[in-house]
Each structure stands twice: as C-alpha cells, then as structure tokens.
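Read as chain and fold; for instance:
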Amino acid sequence: MNDAVSGSGLVLPGVLAALFACSLAPIFWPAAVAVRRRPTLPRRGLFVFVVAALCHGTLGVLAALIVLPVSALLVYVVPQVEAAGAHSGEPIASIARLVAEYWWIAYGPALVVLAGTMTRWLAARWTRIVSAMAS
C-alpha cells in the first residue's frame, strides 16, 4: 500500500496542516476581532498587520533564545562529555536533542496562544495608539 495513504503516512501531513492552520491564527483572529468589535477598531488593516508582526517576531526571538544555546550545547559540550566517557550528562543531552529536533511542534500552539493574548491586549489599547500616531 502507498505510504501517503496508509495510517503512518498521514501523520506528518496532518501535523503540517495543523501547523499551517496555526500559523494563520495571527491573521484571522485579529481580523475577526477588528470586523466584529463594536465600535469598530480604526485602521483595521494596520491592526491585523501589527498583531501578526508582534506574534511572529516574539516567537522568532523566543525560538532563537531557546534553540541557539541548545544547539551550541549539542555541538560543543555534549561531544566532549561523551568523548571523556562521562555518562552524567546523558539526561541533559537527551533533553537537548529532543528540544533541538522537535521545537517546531510547539511553535504552532504557542502562536495561537500568543495571537489571542496579543489581540486582546492590543485591541483594548488600539484606539489610543492610533490617535497617538495621528497627532
């Protein structure tokens, strides 16, 4: 049977489809809030753009702050510890490998949570922000 149709072949496309849907949350969630909110938010397109930029930028920085030190640990420290024969670093190395290989799975749900939080936080202040930009 073809792997793309079998049960094991649908796991990765399903995960990727879910991550793609999560990546659109910073666009669709603020757009829905901007359209449905009464009174409507001024400069709705800018609101959607700012929320999306803040969400992706914040998570990009957080991902870099987590993945870069973990990768440096795996490249520089773990091989030296393993070459020395010390097995005391094995739990740390296992956790570091897990984080370095699978951090992208947590990116989608974190993006959805951040999109909801940023939208709520920014929507309450958006009218004052736009008026401050105008003056």
User: Anything to note?
Assistant: The chain has one domain: 8-134.
